[in-house]
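Long-time lurker. I teach an intro course on protein structure, and each term I like to show students one example going from raw sequence to a predicted 3D structure in token notation. This year I'd like something fresh instead of my usual example. Would anyone be willing to generate the tokens for the chain below so I can use it in lecture? Attribution to the forum is fine with me.
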Amino acid sequence: RHLEWATPTWCVCVQAPDGTLASFIGIVLRRATCDGAPLHIGGIGGVMTHPALRRRGFAGLGMRRAVEFFHAQEDVAFGLLVCDTHRLGYYGSLGWQEFTGELHVLQHGQPALFTYNRVMTIGVKSTAPLAGCIDLLGPPW
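-- Reply from a regular --
Happy to contribute to a lecture. Here you go:
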């Protein structure tokens, strides 16, 4: 499928001890709605770790730093990411919870229901929703 994805506006880069890039975590700050109420959310996307450096905690370090970045913002209600089913346990171990409601996005300017991956949320300034309807008012990340 040809999906349109949002470009990150911020990122966390984690260096390995030798100074090389170990992990990258893309960050999007966006106005959205949750059950019709407007709010700001923080998005995580494009999480990548160099294959030779996996399973050493670099991505987890970057993910925790990204959530700290959300907390440093004045108005981020919660964080949201999308992932493959096999990553639910990993992100769950970092405090993220699966969102079982509907995620609405824009695809090439048209409203669409996002069903490609699973959705997870984490509380920042408010409790993260686990059900209901979130509209990203743009493409997913």
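Some talking points for your students: The first strand starts at residue 10 and ends at 15. The two ends are 15 Å apart (CA to CA).
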